[in-house]
Amino acid sequence: MKTHPFNWFATIITVIAVSIWLFNSYGKIHSEHLTEATISEKTHDEDEYYIEVDGKKIKVKDTSIWMVLEAGEKYELTYEWYGMKKPYVKDINQAHDEDQIGGSH
User: Which residues cross the membrane (predicted)?
Assistant: First the structure.
């Protein structure tokens, strides 16, 4: 059976496209940093805790942090996600809080 060069070319292009899609969807961690994020809502489902910021539902892994956060307040927030996972809080601090930079004596 003789193969046509177009079949090899199409197969190579398909493999490359699928590889790029898989890497971007599952191999790459996406991150976003917000400096003036206002929490509009706090919710929880059984053992999972969430905040809603700019219309996005973001998971808070540490329940003690979730308990301290207040709806309507502004925070400096960094969150990450990869693949089909829900975004989760990586770092959060009060907006314009200078204590994190250098500390005090």
Answer: 6-23
